[in-house]
Amino acid sequence: MSDRGSLGLGADAPHVVNRGISGDRASDLYARWNEDAISVQPDLISILVGVNDAYHLIQGDARGASDRYRLAYTHLLEETRTVLPNAKIVLCEPFILRTGSLDEKWTAWETKMTAYRQIVQELADSYSATFVPLQHLFDEACERAPREHWLWDGIHPTAAGHEMIARQWLEVVSLPDLRG
After folding, report:
1. Could you give the CA distance from residue 47 to residue 94 in angstroms, rounded to a whole number?
2. CA-to-CA distance for 96 and 90, rounded, in angstroms?
3. What is the edge-to-edge ordering of all strands in the sheet holding 88-92?
4. In Å, what is the CA distance from 132 to each residue of 12, 124, 136?
5. Residue scoring higher pLDDT (164 or 179)
6. What is the pLDDT of residue 134?
7. CB 52: neighbour CB atoms within 10 A?
């Protein structure tokens, strides 16, 4: 843990722990949830997951032999609400753009991700979580710059894409002390 004062942050600045792992699916999050989330005893948990679940299903590999997205995500939220009933939960909408390798199987990607976005919205409603919509931001951003400017391969954000996500998260989550 860093000394917040040495970083120029006030004593009341939030302590952020990022436990995201590139390539993880919802079931991977659930498998390590106790250690990576529950044991930290956070006041707020923010989750963005779904693209890797879709990837393995669409590619037909063994990690995607069955679609566990809703089931794993539900277990994760159920456990969180039981063990950390006062934690604020933020669910970020998974997003994609039609570019890079996604173009070849775009219909499958669009169908799966539309379903996953609906699942995340439903889970946010069911578990009194804050929902952060993101897909429409990327769709609208493509009117200002090419798709690759936001998501270099249709999945992974560029610096501009990350900034757009961060701004939306701060706007929706409404934590004025984080805005600086």
Report:
1. 10
2. 19
3. 44-47, 88-92, 130-132
4. 25, 9, 11
5. 164
6. 98
7. 21
Please tell me what DSSP assigns to residue 15.
Answer: P
Residues in contact with 170: Cβ distance below 8 Å, sequence separation at least 6, in sequence order:
178, 179
pLDDT in tens, 120-170: 999 999 999 999 999 999 999 999 999 999 999 999 999 999 999 999 999
Local structure of residue 116 (DSSP, 8 states): H
* CA dist 38 → 33, 68, 76 (Å): 6, 21, 10
What CA dihedral angle connects 172, 176, 177 and 180, to 10 degrees?
100
Distance CA 58, CA 60 (A): 5
Contact indicator for 171, 132 with CB cutoff of 8 Å: no
Which helix H or strand E contains 63, and what residues bound it? none
